Amino acid sequence: MRFSRSRRGRSAVVAVLVTAVVAAGYVATTATAKSHDTTTLRVDLFGDFGYHDLYKQFEAAHPGVTIKEDIESYADHHANLAKHLATHAGADDVVAIEVGFIAQFAAQPQNFVDLRQNGAGSLKSHWLPWKWQQSTSPNGAQIGLGTDVGSLAICYRRDLFAAAGLPSSREAVSKLWPTWQAFIATGKKFQAKAPAGVKFFDSGSNVYNAIIGQANPGYYDKSGKVIAATNPAVRNAWNLTMQGIAAGQSAGLSAFSTQWNTGYKKGTFATVTCPAWMMGYIQGQAPKTKGKWDIAAVPGTGGNWGGSFLTIPKQSKNADLAFQLVKFLTSPASEAFVFKQTGNLPSEPGLYSSKPIASFKNPFFNNAPVGKIFTTSARRLKPQTLGPHQGDIQTASSNAIQRVEQGKQSADKSWSQFLKDVKNVS
Amino acid sequence: MKPELAAAPDARRVGSLTLRERVRRLDTKASPYAYVTPFFALFIAFGAFPLLYTAYVSLTDRNLLSPTTHFIGLANYSALFHDSYFWNAVENTLAIWLISTVPQLLLALGLAQALNTKLRARTLFRMAVLLPQVTSLVAVALIFAQLFGHDYGLINYVLGLVGIHHVYWEAGRFSSWLALSTMVIWRWTGYNALIYLAAMQAIPDELYEAAVVDGGGRWQQFRHVTVPMLRPTIIFTVIISTVGGLQLFTEPYLFDPNQSGHTGGSGRQYQTVALYLYEKSFGSSQFKFGYASAIAWSLFLLIAVASLINFLFIRRIRSAE
């Protein structure tokens, strides 16, 4: 962005601002004028959560309530929420927070309604234990209720496995890697006979993050102290990833980059750590690979990547009504409904044995029983204490792994810079 | 002072002024201020106030995550002075700016000279050079990031045809600077060329006729007539390019293939100062607003110094007089 704005450009901006202020004032007055008989609840999301029919149900059950939905992009959404909380203005009544950001916001419980005050504590048993814990603040306040989870499995290319002389049925493949050590060892076998230009996994940091996710504790100990430098589990995850990279198993791509997308189309990697929502992503990126993919269990003890929470900022003027809505949207019935609409996996294990989920299969992935695979993985994951700088530490680790993948630094040098970065951000 | 002096002898007569006269007097005195008020009101609200408030915040430890803020004097600036990532960002910014601005302005000058001749479809060409300017910056950055891709990028493909090994443009330090400079050059050359062209057309023909009479060839005309006459325009474009180039943000931000593009590559090889500012404020979850404000003011000083040096340097072009 080059900021050589002309004065004309600036006055255009000003004109827009003035109009916006006037318009906002107008809207505000009409809203207050009407507030005697109607209430508007605003819901702020970062994508389509499949809620539209549920809003209608809620409005029908609560006469005089209108629900308006705002959708922003993933990155803007969370940055704007931070601004709204800091300035104590502008936040909607209900705001979704993705798991990548939840620890950061859970660290500021003073800005959110503690849902325990509304009796949410009695609902705790509905959720997966780790899902519940993620939206619990260090001081015990419950700032949000879980919507969906990503869970975690390994998506793999059957054809490439067969070409490298490995078994290709999902049961046999799952048995190849009960642990992450076994996963890397399988990678060595794969790489020895792999088709030209094909790597075992897409990116070192995707593997590393999956290993870290199972560690208990991970980057933070129970008291909220950063222990990345001293926790042997972190070092172990690093060493395993480095072994894989040193053996030439990584395609060295960053998740969601255009090169990564191309990698799906061209089949340049044989496995990818795979949450439930990744199925749709792969299908969208590489529709021609239908039937070549299958899904095996994740090594170790389950996992998760993605999923969200619904929170109520303290500045909401309709907090009690907002809680009713949050409770309704995250109820087992609603989550089952959303699953049917969008395929988002519920975060409430009570639903996992219900027929639509337990019998869910995906034809794109060779009819893998994905309902069973992902719910088993989600159930097995143990709660882990997260901290406010979780995301920054993850950025630092991804950079550190990439420096090794790109051949810019030795593993040891990159590790010490990673520890320096961790100290810097936390 | 003058109006007041003139008004003084009238002072005794004030009581006898009609309402109409008073209004008229007020009109001539006050209305000019009323005319300029909107600009100054907006400037104070959206220009001066944020500037000064940022200066104040840079002296505090303000953090979005912490409810309290303390005055800490120049501690942010001294921390910044010892922050190796900040100096890395300064180095990157200056390097990218240098290898983008110098070729860009030279190219623009050549392009303007070419457009100033009697071409067929002249207006079409003149419009065409401005096209990159109206392209969305996001689209430019994304497409160039693809062109400079490692495995499937067009540039590596072409290099491969002549037997050159694939370059990891994004990962390398100099190669990433080169890629980013290409984006800047592509986007801004035409804009500067049009500014030069406008100035060239204002140069009186007599000067060229005199040069021809004196036996000057085309190159000598360009060197001894065109460039000196363009001096004020060149100073203008150099300053504008400096101000813009040192604030480079979107190109490096979108060039990073990682979702969190605020570190400017895995080794911060192309993190600019503006990007580092963003990392410390909104890009990550650090929200160190005090520190980020200190970066903002340091960037301001950097631009001021760089512009001054440029100004002094360019002024040495022999004046037309």
Radius of gyration of chain A: 23 Å
**Count of separate DSSP helical elements of chain A:** 18
Low-confidence stretches of chain A: 1-35
Query: Taking all residues together, what is the mean pLDDT of chain A?
Result: 90
Element string of chain B (H = helix, E = strand): HHHHHHHHHHHHHHH
- β-strand percent of chain A reads 5-15%
Question: Largest inter-chain interface?
Answer: A-B, 44 and 40 residues
What share of residues of chain B is helical?
55-70%
Rg over C-alpha atoms of chain B, rounded to the nearest angstrom:
27 Å
The helicity of chain A comes to: 40-55%
Placed side by side, the strands forming the largest sheet of chain A appear as 2-1-3-9-4-10
How would a crystallographer describe the biggest sheet of chain B? none
Q: What are the segments of chain B in which pLDDT stays under 50 over at least 5 consecutive residues?
A: 1-9
Strand residue content of chain B: under 5%
Distinct helical segment count of chain B: 15
Q: Mind summarizing the main beta sheet of chain A? A: 6 strands, mixed
Judged by helices, strands and strand pairing, the structural class of chain A is: alpha/beta
Mean of pLDDT of chain B: 89
What order do the helices and strands of chain A follow?
Answer: HEHEHEHHEEHHHEHHHEHEEHHEHHHH
Structure report:
The complex is a heterodimer of chains A (426) and B (321). With 426 residues, chain A is an alpha/beta fold. Chain A is 48% helix and 12% strand. Chain A has helices spanning 7-34, 52-61, 74-87, 99-106, 129-134, 158-163, 170-176, 180-193, 204-214, 232-246, 258-266, 278-285, 319-329, 332-342, 355-358, 370-380, 390-405, 411-425, and strands spanning 39-45, 65-71, 94-98, 144-149, 153-157, 199-201, 269-274, 293-296, 307-311, 345-346. In chain A, the strands form two sheets. A six-stranded mixed β-sheet of chain A has the order 2-1-3-9-4-10, sandwiched between helices. In chain A, helix 8 (180-193) packs parallel to helix 10 (232-246) and helix 17 packs antiparallel against helix 18. Chain A is globular. In chain B, helix 9 (173-201) packs antiparallel against helix 12 (231-245). The two termini of chain B are 38 Å apart. In chain B, 32% of the residues are buried. The interface between A and B is large, with 44 and 40 residues.
